[in-house]
Amino acid sequence: MGAGPGGTLLARYVPGTSAVHRLEPHLKLVSVLAFALVVVATPVHAPWAPAAYAGYLLAVLTAAAVAGVSPARLARGLVVEVPFVAFAVLLPFVAAGPQVEVLGLSVSRTGLAAGGGLLAKATLSILAATILSATTEPRALLRGLERLRLPQVLVQILMFMIRYADVVGGELHRMRVARESRGFHGGGLRGLRVMAATAGSLFVRSYERGERVHLAMLSRGYTGRLPTGAVSAAAPGAWAVALSLPLAAAAVLLAGMLLG
Amino acid sequence: MTAPPPSLLVEDLAFAYPDGHQALFGVDLRIERGERVALLGPNGAGKTTLVLHLNGILRAGRGEVTVAGLPVAKRSLPEIRRRVGVVFQDPDDQLFMPTVADDVAFGPRNLGLPEEEVAARVTAALEQVRMADAADRPPHHLSFGQRRRVAVATVLAMQPEIVVLDEPSSNLDPAGRRELAEVLTELPVTLLMVTHDLPYAAQMCPRSVILDGGVVVADGPTPDVLSDAGLLAAHRLELPYGFSPAG
C-alpha cells in the first residue's frame, strides 16, 4: 500500500517550465525571504500602509501569473493561515484606545490597524511562499537550503522528513484500517485513549525505523556528512530575475516612506 | 602462486549484548571467493547478530572476523564497510535519499570518490540489477521488488568483496522473487544469504550453513543439508509442503 504518485509533500509541487520554475532554488528562497522582510518592515499605523499592501499584492500576483500558479492553488496555500486570521479578528475587540464603528460594532482603531496589518502581512508572505512551494520540488528546496549554508544536520533532518513522511503516513493509515476492521469508531473518551495508544506505537515504530536506517547508513560508510553532487553557479541574470519580486516590494515601501 | 584469501573468515566468534544476553558462542565460518552460501536458522538463532559483526557494527567479544585478508578492527572500518555490502531486510530502511541515483551514490561518495567515478558506478550498479531506468525516480514510487533490487545496487556501487543479504525473498511476489534470483545469480561477487526460505536457498546457493543457539550446527552442500529431515526438525526449519530438495 504505497503513497499515490507524488506523495503527500510532493503534491504541493505543480510541474511546469515557467521562468520561476527554472530559477535555481536558493535564489527563490532568498527572494521569498527578502520579500517577507520588506512586507514585515512596513509600519502598520502609517496612513499609506493599505496602499503599500495593495502594491505588494500586485507584485506577488504578477509573480504568480509569471509562474503559472493558478488562483485556486494560491487559495489552497492560504489555508495554513486560518489560525492567524482568528487571532487577527480578535485584536480590534480586545485592544484599548479610541473606538470606531464598523458594521454597527464598536472596535478599537489601533486594534483594527494592527489586526488588519497582521492579516495583510501574513497573507502576502504566505502567497509568496506558496509560489515557492508550487514551483520548486521538495528536494530542490533542500539543495537550495544547503547552498545557503543551512547547517548539514538541519538539511538532513528535512531530507529524512520528506523521504519518510509517506512511509510513516502509510503506517498510520494501515493502523487505522486495522483498528476500524475490528469495529472501532472514533469519538468520546475511549476514542481519545485509543488515539493516544496509536500515537505512542507510531512513535516507537518510527524511532526503531530511525535506528535501522542509521544502521544501514553506517554499513555504507556514513560518517555524519551527507555528500551531495556538484552544484553549478547561478548566472547574474538569474539573480536579477529572482530579486525582482523583493525589489518591487522595496520600491513600493520606499515610495510610501518618501511620499506618505 | 598462492590462492586468494577467503572472502570471509570467521573464527571462534562469541558475542554477548550489553544486557548480558549471549547471542553467539564461538562461530566458525569460511567462505571462499565467488561462493554463494545460505545462512539458515530459526528466529533468534543469532543470524542478524552475526551479520552485524561482518561489517563491524557490533564488535566481537571473542574471536575474529577477516574479510579478504583484512581483520575487522576500528582502524579498518571504512575499508571493511566497502568490502562487505549488507542489504537489509526492509528496503525502506536502506533507501533514504530523495532519488534512486542519489541513494546508490551515497556509498561511493562516502568513499570520497570523484564525481565522474561515482556517476559511472551508479550507472553500472543500476544496470546490474536492471533498474537503470529508475535512476531519477524517488524510491517510494517503486514497487517493493524494485526497491529491493535498488537496495542491492546501493551496495554493488561500493564494489564489495562479499554481499550479505538479510531475508532477500521476504515480502516479494513470485515474479519479484524470480527477478531478484536472476539478478543475484549473475553477480560476480561472493554471496551470503541469510534466510529461512529453504527453497530459495536451494535455488540459489550450492552450500548451506545452519546457525542455531549461537553456533554453526551444520555446513555442507545445500541438497544434503535440506534432505536431512532430522537435522531440519531439530532446528525449527521446515520445507514447504510438497517441496523435495532433490528435485
Automatic annotation (TrEMBL), chain A:
* InterPro entries named among the record's database cross-references: ABC/ECF_trnsptr_transmembrane, ECF_CbiQ, ECF_transporter_component
Membrane topology listed for this record? Multi-pass membrane protein
Instruction: Provide the leader sequence positions.
Output: none
Compartments (UniProt record): Cell membrane
A GO BP entry is: cobalt ion transport
Keyword set, alphabetical order: Cell membrane, Membrane, Transmembrane, Transmembrane helix
**Primary localisation category:** membrane
Looking up CDD domains in the UniProt record yields: EcfT
Does the keyword Nucleotide-binding feature in the UniProt annotation?
no
- Which is one Gene Ontology cellular component term of this protein? ATP-binding cassette (ABC) transporter complex
- Transmembrane domains' residue ranges: 52-71, 78-98, 118-136, 237-259
Quote any Pfam family the record assigns: CbiQ
PANTHER family, sorted = SLL0384 PROTEIN
What is the name listed in the Swiss-Prot or TrEMBL entry for this protein? Cobalt/nickel transport system permease protein
Organism annotation: Blastococcus xanthinilyticus
Automatic annotation (TrEMBL), chain B:
UniProt-listed Pfam families: ABC_tran (PF00005)
CDD domains in the record: ABC_cobalt_CbiO_domain1 (cd03225)
PROSITE patterns hit by this protein: ABC_TRANSPORTER_1 (PS00211), ABC_TRANSPORTER_2 (PS50893)
Q: Which residues form the ABC transporter domain?
A: 8-238
Per its UniProt record, what Gene3D superfamilies does this chain match? P-loop containing nucleotide triphosphate hydrolases
Q: Which GO terms describe its biological process?
A: cobalt ion transport
Entries under InterPro entries matching the protein: AAA+_ATPase (IPR003593), ABC_transporter-like_ATP-bd (IPR003439), ABC_transporter-like_CS (IPR017871), ABC_transpr_CbiO/EcfA_su (IPR015856), Co_trans_ATP-bd (IPR005876), ECF_ABC_transporter_ATP-bd (IPR050095), P-loop_NTPase (IPR027417)
Q: Which SUPFAM superfamilies match?
A: P-loop containing nucleoside triphosphate hydrolases (SSF52540)
Q: So which residues are the signal peptide here?
A: none
- Identify a single GO molecular function assigned to this protein: ATP binding
**Which of UniProt's keywords are assigned here?**
ATP-binding, Cell membrane, Membrane, Nucleotide-binding, Translocase, Transport
Pull one GO CC term from this UniProt entry.
ATP-binding cassette (ABC) transporter complex
- Protein's membrane topology: Peripheral membrane protein
UniProt family annotation: Belongs to the ABC transporter superfamily.
List, alphabetically, the NCBIfam families matched: cbiO
Protein task: Probably part of an ABC transporter complex. Responsible for energy coupling to the transport system.
Task: Quote the protein name from its UniProt record.
Answer: ABC transporter ATP-binding protein
